[in-house]
């Protein structure tokens, strides 16, 4: 193909890409109109049966124009997720009049380029108002910023699929009056970042956050005799390597974050688990109301009485009320040796009858119980489509 012919094809592709973007924007507007109807008639945001029917139809149509079913499914899973999250955000905004701010001041760990920074960008991209980022050096500082009204929200990592729960955040939640108002799961893609022309063999010192080192322990073992230096955040590690600009130092962080500091990725997929995700919570001074049409989670903290089987008795209350528990985390109570506080995440809305019944029962059998927040669940599970039904005519 000649250069002229290649340029012609590329121009057609560019035009089609622009057309696709316009069509996606138009589709989003239509789904927002659907949300208006759901608000008016109290219809749940997700309709799994309709989503399945939609995917089956699209897979069949795709095959007629030689598009692979897996390719079609992947594309529309992303489109459906975007639609669901936008509708949930719209319903939540309507349920909390006056909560929208012209300027969202958000505190998070690190600076530009940290994983918390990227999660903050992702979460507030669906919320009205401008974003003012407030980088902090510790979880305590983040909490204090919101408690002292220097920030409106805080974004905190709470757990990771590789390294598990972030205990320091749970400890901070024991002592704050802030409420959890949201959550999101963000993919963590660790890469080796350098500020000079070099190779892995030349690296002598590695900078990263302690959690990152934990998540990449297998890679560190392969490196051998390399000095590791822990940093307060991923962004500070990247800044240090950028300023040093030496061939014998590197940082571990995201490629997108590294770009902000002029760093180059020389190796990717460093985490022990290739499907590596972190869950973040968003906290604020005031709780939010979650519409019953929106899938919700509730986080509570409780301390059981000191007797055998007390925790089991409390958990049975959830089972009896058909409430699914998604997380159970124990943390020591400062000043009370051998006593623990239990953090529990459940699927359900505090405004819903079964959840209210369960919490009333728990109050009667526990020493202490407090709801830390009820918030929209943003873990959008992809709609499953049976291959046989999708491919049959």
UniProtKB/TrEMBL annotation:
Its EC number is 4.2.1.51, 5.4.99.5. It comes from Alteromonas hispanica. It is found in: Cytoplasm. PROSITE patterns: ACT, CHORISMATE_MUT_2, PREPHENATE_DEHYDR_2, PREPHENATE_DEHYDR_3. SUPFAM superfamilies: ACT-like, Chorismate mutase II, Periplasmic binding protein-like II. Residues 1-91 form the Chorismate mutase domain. GO terms for molecular function: chorismate mutase activity; prephenate dehydratase activity. Substrate binds at residues 10, 27, 38, 47, 51, 83, 87. It catalyses: prephenate + H(+) = 3-phenylpyruvate + CO2 + H2O; chorismate = prephenate. Residues 6-40 form a coiled coil. Catalyzes the Claisen rearrangement of chorismate to prephenate and the decarboxylation/dehydration of prephenate to phenylpyruvate. This is Bifunctional chorismate mutase/prephenate dehydratase. InterPro entries: ACT-like_dom_sf (IPR045865), ACT_dom (IPR002912), Chor_mutase/pphenate_deHydtase (IPR008242), Chorismate_II_sf (IPR036263), CM_dom_sf (IPR036979), CM_II_prokaryot (IPR002701), CM_P_1 (IPR010952), Preph_deHydtase (IPR001086). Gene3D superfamilies: 3.30.70.260, Chorismate mutase (1.20.59.10), Periplasmic binding protein-like II (3.40.190.10). Its main location: cytoplasm.
